[in-house]
């Protein structure tokens, strides 16, 4: 028309609100979060708009920063809405929120985080007069951030979001606590090297066949449970699939053909689903129908289900829901073509035979050329112009074309349209009518197809609750079969999970390290700790002997058990842990202004301040980032704190052999076994009772390629330090300082170095070389010279090796 067209922003696309597949990682959730405060609590909520998952929690102001970092590390939030006053007044929280490069932070005014406004928005979303059904009370702090999040979506998506039907509340008591450093150090879903999933726990557990199954698997790895009933239900499901390999293979085949129904539901709910999306919904429902038949045949029970009873709402389709889904599948099969267009303006959406009026219009459109040909033959006969042609161009439409030598035969009823060099163009009333019918049919076909498609889409949209439940069942089944498949190909066993304060792992293995070694190369080890016996294992041994691997595998096996997975061991009995702390590795964080040692102490302080008797603590080389005496004193005191006050299950690896002098009924000294022969060492990677005799650091340095003269000098210095160091026995308080150096007078080592420097190996016979070795052996009267004798005075080395 001639009036002004109304113009407005119809949608704002941001990192946390997009539902377009082109901008999403199929195997990862895309979270948008909100952070707000009340008088005493921090309110935190997050949502994945592409799937409809919606969660909220709250935690006290005290200790809020590490808790927020824990959540953000777990979720990898891409965008946050943050209350303005928090950014200004609580710098620690602002830093935690902005710590990830690329995360978008939206600062919202405080008045937008209003409790009444948020409550009204939540009630409107869920169609409920009260929120008690979601576990929310009148003044629950979670209401503020959850409601603000929906307000933000109103401002951006600018459409109702009916697929967001639940708000799930959670707290500390529901999931196993995994702080920021623990998630990173254990490399649960990303490795430390490049942040990818390769060489992570996710990689070795991921045998999923659908995108939604992979997302759920990742969530379960990062959110292990503390409820033994739910854990056992998950293990039962995995066990059923593990013991029925025939059905497992059938499930994998069907799941491999199943589209991402979760994200299809979101686009359907937001009226963004196009033709290919609807075809994908049809295919997903076809797979779901076949999967449900197999579920009944195999006797699989989803979490919360039991014989003769309904299951958890998250995995159940209530009432006539299954029938409604089958009806929808039939509607889509009858209505949507096999390969539809993604546009609504070019047709190719609706199957032939679905609508009688559409079929008639298509017949007119498809037969238009035949009608024109018949009319052309009729006019040729009437006019006698054998060269008469009907042509088409976009400016004047269909027309007759007559050459110059035939213009005298043109009848009066021909209406001249255009002159040309070679002739003229004409039309007739009948040709104009035919053109109108043909062109009108094409337009009408497109319009009618669009109308019918939208009707079908609305029918599907009405079944979003059932479609979402079907998607959750498929994702849950895919995750369970992935764990069953991993257990099958990697030789994992079902753990026993209970409330006892213990860990009993027999022949445990590190799942990631083992997966990247040849079969049979990994050396398994036991890990046994008990609340009424040994709770603290002090582990000594050389570098490269496997201490860090052993520590990490105990933590990973615990996580796997509590997420509902089989574990890499011959036997495993896991008592539920409330938190796992993993203080391993050394790195700095220059962006936060933290040195390596400061980060180590921050992590250690967090453990000592928050660990409980039900926690599992993994500590490696505490105190190594400072002076020897300082580090040893800290490590000693930390050990005593864990033993005497916290009393939690602890694996404590160290190079401070002096700690073996600590005596306590709950402490056991264990070490990584090393075979030493003829100056060479072999790391057996086997845990044994008792403390290690040495750290063999110089041997490891030699393996790394440290120059020979540096190694020789290191041996001399180490021997001197060993002679001067104090010995700490049982019951000692703290290690003594190193006394002043004594003069060294023995010059045998200097004679050996001079003799060796004068050698010309290329001119020596084998017998001469053996005689020289025998002479050196006699000089020291020892079996090996890999470590210099205690009373050796070394000459200046550079002058000998120039």
Question: TL;DR of this structure?
Answer:
The chain is of the alpha/beta class. The radius of gyration is 38 Å and the shape is elongated.
Structure explained in plain terms:
This protein is α/β, with parallel strands linked by helices. It has 25 helices and 21 strands. The strands form 4 sheets. The chain has a 7-stranded mixed β-sheet with strand order 7-17-18-19-15-20-21, with helices on both faces. Strands 5-4-1-2-3-6 form a 6-stranded mixed β-sheet. A 4-stranded antiparallel β-sheet has the order 8-9-11-10. Helix 8 (211-222) packs across helix 16 and helix 13 (321-335) runs antiparallel to helix 15 (429-461).
The fraction of residues in strands falls at 5-15%
Q: Which regions have little confidence, pLDDT < 50, spanning 5+ residues?
A: 307-312, 726-746, 782-802
Distance, first to last CA: 94 Å
Structural class: alpha/beta
Q: How many extended strands?
A: 21
Biggest sheet statistics: 7 strands, mixed
Give me the oligomer status.
single chain
Radius of gyration using CA atoms only: 38 Å
- Determine the number of helices (DSSP H or I, runs of at least 4 residues): 25
Approximate shape: elongated
Helix content range = 40-55%
Average pLDDT score: 85
Trace the largest sheet across and list its strands: 7-17-18-19-15-20-21
Question: SSE layout and pairings?
Answer:
Blueprint: E1 32-37, E2 41-48, E3 53-60, H1 64-75, E4 79-83, H2 84-89, H3 91-97, E5 104-108, H4 115-126, H5 142-156, E6 168-169, E7 177-178, H6 180-185, H7 201-205, H8 211-222, H9 228-243, H10 245-255, H11 261-269, H12 275-298, H13 321-335, H14 356-383, E8 389-393, E9 397-403, E10 415-419, E11 423-427, H15 429-461, H16 464-490, E12 496-498, E13 502-508, H17 511-515, E14 525-530, E15 536-540, H18 547-563, E16 571-575, E17 579-583, H19 596-610, E18 616-620, H20 628-646, E19 649-653, E20 667-677, E21 680-689, H21 697-704, H22 708-724, H23 748-757, H24 766-780, H25 797-801
Parallel strand pairs: 1-4, 3-6, 4-5, 7-17, 12-16, 15-19, 15-20, 17-18, 18-19
Antiparallel strand pairs: 1-2, 2-3, 8-9, 9-11, 10-11, 13-14, 13-16, 20-21
Helix pairs in contact: 1-3, 4-5, 8-16, 9-16, 10-12, 10-16, 11-12, 11-16, 12-13, 13-15, 14-15
């Amino acid at each position: 028309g001639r009036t002004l067209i109304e113009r407005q922003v119809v949608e704002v696309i941001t990192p946390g609100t997009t539902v377009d597949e082109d901008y999403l990682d199929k195997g990862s959730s895309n979270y948008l979060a909100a952070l707000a405060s009340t008088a005493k609590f921090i309110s935190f909520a997050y949502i994945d708009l592409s799937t409809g998952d919606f969660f909220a929690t709250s935690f006290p102001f005290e200790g809020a920063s590490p808790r927020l970092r824990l959540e953000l590390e777990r979720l990898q939030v891409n965008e946050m809405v943050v209350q303005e006053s928090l950014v200004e007044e609580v710098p620690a929280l602002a830093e935690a929120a902005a710590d990830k490069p690329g995360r978008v932070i939206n600062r919202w005014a405080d008045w937008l985080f209003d409790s009444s406004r948020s409550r009204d928005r939540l009630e409107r979303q869920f169609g409920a007069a009260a929120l008690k059904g979601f576990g929310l009370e009148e003044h629950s702090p979670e209401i503020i951030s959850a409601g603000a999040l929906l307000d933000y979506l109103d401002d951006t998506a600018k459409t109702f979001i009916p697929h967001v039907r639940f708000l799930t509340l959670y707290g500390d008591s529901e999931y196993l606590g995994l702080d920021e450093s623990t998630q990173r150090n254990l490399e649960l879903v990303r490795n430390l090297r490049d942040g990818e999933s390769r060489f992570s726990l996710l990689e070795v557990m991921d045998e999923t066949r659908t995108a939604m199954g992979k997302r759920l698997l990742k969530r379960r790895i990062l959110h292990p449970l503390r409820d033994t009933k739910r854990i056992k239900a998950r293990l039962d499901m995995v066990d059923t699939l593990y013991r029925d390999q025939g059905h497992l293979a059938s499930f994998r085949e069907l799941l491999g053909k199943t589209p991402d129904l979760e994200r299809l539901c979101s686009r359907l709910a937001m009226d963004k689903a196009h033709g290919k999306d609807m075809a994908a919904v049809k295919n997903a429902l076809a797979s779901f129908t076949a999967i449900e038949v197999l579920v009944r045949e195999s006797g699989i029970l989803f979490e919360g289900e039991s014989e003769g009873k309904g299951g958890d709402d998250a995995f159940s389709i209530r009432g006539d829901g299954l029938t409604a889904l089958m009806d929808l599948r039939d509607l889509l099969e009858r209505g949507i073509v096999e390969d539809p267009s993604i546009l609504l303006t070019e047709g190719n959406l609706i199957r032939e035979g679905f609508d009688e009026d559409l079929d008639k219009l298509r017949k007119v459109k498809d037969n238009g050329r035949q009608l024109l040909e018949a009319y052309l033959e009729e006019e040729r006969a009437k006019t006698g112009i054998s060269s008469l042609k009907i042509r088409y161009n976009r400016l004047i439409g269909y027309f007759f074309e007559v050459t110059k030598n035939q213009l005298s035969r043109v009848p009066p009823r021909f209406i001249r349209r255009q002159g040309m060099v070679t002739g003229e163009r004409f039309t007739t009333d009948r040709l104009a009518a035919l053109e109108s019918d043909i062109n009108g049919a094409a337009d009408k076909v497109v319009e009618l197809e669009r109308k019918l498609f939208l009707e079908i889409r609305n029918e599907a949209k009405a079944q979003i609750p059932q479609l979402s439940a079907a998607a959750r069942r498929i994702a849950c089944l895919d995750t369970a079969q992935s764990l069953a498949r991993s257990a099958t190909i990697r030789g994992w066993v079902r753990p026993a999970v209970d409330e006892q304060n213990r860990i009993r792992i027999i022949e445990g293995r590190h799942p990631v390290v083992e997966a990247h070694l040849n079969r049979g190369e990994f050396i398994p080890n036991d890990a046994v700790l008990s609340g009424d016996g040994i709770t603290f294992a002090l582990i000594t041994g050389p570098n490269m002997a496997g201490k860090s691997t052993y520590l990490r595998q105990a933590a990973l096996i615990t996580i796997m058990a509590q997420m509902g997975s089989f574990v890499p061991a011959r036997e495993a009995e896991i008592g539920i842990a409330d938190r796992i702390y993993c203080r391993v590795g050394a790195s700095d964080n220059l962006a936060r202004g933290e040195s390596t040692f400061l980060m180590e102490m921050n992590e250690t302080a967090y453990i000592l301040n928050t660990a409980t008797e039900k926690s599992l603590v993994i500590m490696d080389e505490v105190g190594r980032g400072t002076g020897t005496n300082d580090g040893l004193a800290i490590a000693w005191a930390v050990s005593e704190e864990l033993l005497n006050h916290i009393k939690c299950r602890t694996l404590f690896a160290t190079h401070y052999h002096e700690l073996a002098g600590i005596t306590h009924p709950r402490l056991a000294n264990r070490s990584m076994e090393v075979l030493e022969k003829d100056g060479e060492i072999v790391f057996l990677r086997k845990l044994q009772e008792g403390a290690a005799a040495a750290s063999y650091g110089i041997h490891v340095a030699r393996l790394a390629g440290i120059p020979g003269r540096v190694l020789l000098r290191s041996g001399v210095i180490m021997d001197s330090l060993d002679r001067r160091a104090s010995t700490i026995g049982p019951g000692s308080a703290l290690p003594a300082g190193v006394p002043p150096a004594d003069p060294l007078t023995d010059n045998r080592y200097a004679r050996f170095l001079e003799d060796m420097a004068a050698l010309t190996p290329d001119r020596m016979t084998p017998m001469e070389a053996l005689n020289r070795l025998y002479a050196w052996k006699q000089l020291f009267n020892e079996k090996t010279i890999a470590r210099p004798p205690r009373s050796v005075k070394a000459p200046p080395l550079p002058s000998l090796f120039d």
